Amino acid sequence: MRFCRFDDDRLGLVEGDAVRDVTAATDILPALRWPFPRGDQFMTHFEDVRREMERLAPSAPSKPIAEVKLLSPIANPGKIVAAPVNYQLHLDESRVDTEINFGSHVRTIEEYGVFLKAPSSLIGPGEGVVADWADRRIDHEIELAVVIGKQGFRISEADALSYVAGYTIGLDMTIRGTEDRSFRKSLDTFSVLGPWVVTTDELPDASALDFEIKVNGVTKQKSNTSLLIFDIPRLISYASKAYTLYPGDVIMTGTPEGVAPVVPGDVMHAWIDKIGETEVAVRGTW
Ligand code: MN
User: Fold this and answer.
1) Which structural domain range is residue 252 located in?
2) Is the model's pLDDT at 120 over the cut of 90?
3) Which of 55, 80, 134, 265 is 20 to 30 A distant from 281 in Cα terms?
């Protein structure tokens, strides 16, 4: 299954180039009272919602994907975990490019571990990244994004993939500079997810997917997820050694070589094999 969120918080079931509006499926979600449970409640109850989506789909209105505004398919992730320097060639370029490393020695993912991006930085492709820090370099980083489907703590690598609900495209936008990653990668609009989540029944194996990002039609980053230093099971196991993972938590798996600046007016075109493609505009104003 491919699901998306679009326009004014409509829930969509993606079928080819069209989206069925199955928002009514969310009526089965429980009404909540304070204190609200942790985790994205749509993903917590995903199996029930999914049955409703499939039941409603045949009679649900449909419109072309190209005509909708795509929001982040995960509305309320409790956290966005991200992997730094998780491709060797990106580590190599980061060590030689002073505009990336800002004079600091770039260490390995074994030394850094993972970091967190603020959920408030999250947008969908249709919303656009705002790059209004004129004196600073802001880069795109395309990454395979993993959506967690069930709660887990201290998950073994052997069990890790059973905690995955699906995959989507992530952009880990980054302002280069000396500040900590959690600052530089958590600016509003700096985490993009979309265009939709492909669930693991349709995409069981994301370990060898080609992917690419173009800016204004020019290829900037092009790699394959088989080149991850910490692969998906290792990232899940590593993150869950520290943090309980909840349904709807997102893991951005890291970016390959070719990170490059974007400026207002640019259009990023991101593609991952077996997931899809999407366009994200870069804007200069709010
Ligand atoms: Mn990144």
Assistant:
1) 80-283
2) yes
3) 80
